[in-house]
Backbone:
């Protein structure tokens, strides 16, 4: 997957993901074992943590590779930074070839169509990284690790996911559905299948 972020940002994200994954794996290893179970409750969270760490290492290594290639003058180093709107505009231009012939007598119409396409193809396209989303993810992971027992899994995780999806521009209704499905699946996997004690946090006050 291509990245429009500068290499240094991808390196920071990779390091953050690696650290978060190692923390998850370390904490999961300390979960108490359950008798008569081949795999304890920490097995699956450890896999998730190691997978997250591996992803972080790959992201950081790939970004460093781009940085090295850019330093040696390799033009392929900037391929990942190519604006995604160009491909979208090209596809739209090819699609509108037929209608463009029909409107040849109307100066400026084709240019307006291309301009509208560029405007709406990627409304979140920016000159730089989405710092709000990056800060939200890093702060959210730290907050979950620090306040999970106090605030609770079923309170913090939906807020974290919903905030992230909002910052990256997902529609609100779709975000609600994704958050509900993801939180339910995570809760079922940990609490029911793996018998992990999920901290209720603030929900304890409703009892």
Residues:
């Amino acid at each position: 997957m291509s990245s429009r972020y500068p290499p240094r940002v991808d390196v920071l994200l990779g390091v953050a993901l690696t650290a978060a994954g190692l923390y998850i794996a370390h904490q999961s290893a300390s979960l108490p074992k359950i008798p008569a179970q081949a795999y304890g409750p920490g097995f699956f969270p450890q896999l998730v943590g190691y997978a997250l760490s591996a992803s972080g290492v790959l992201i950081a290594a790939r970004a460093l590779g781009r940085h090295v290639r850019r330093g040696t003058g390799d033009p392929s180093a900037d391929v990942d930074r190519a604006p995604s709107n160009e491909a979208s505009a090209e596809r739209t231009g090819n699609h509108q070839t037929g209608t463009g012939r029909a409107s040849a007598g109307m100066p400026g119409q084709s240019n307006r169509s291309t301009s509208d396409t560029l405007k709406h193809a990627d409304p979140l396209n920016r000159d730089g990284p989405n710092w709000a989303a990056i800060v939200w993810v890093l702060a959210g992971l730290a907050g979950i690790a620090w306040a999970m027992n106090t605030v609770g899994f079923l309170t913090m995780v939906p807020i974290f996911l919903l905030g992230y999806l909002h910052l990256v521009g997902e529609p609100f209704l779709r975000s609600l559905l994704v958050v509900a499905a993801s939180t339910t699946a995570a809760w079922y996997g940990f609490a029911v299948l793996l018998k992990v004690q999920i901290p209720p946090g603030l929900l304890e006050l409703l009892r």
User: Anything to note?
Assistant: The chain has a mean pLDDT of 72.
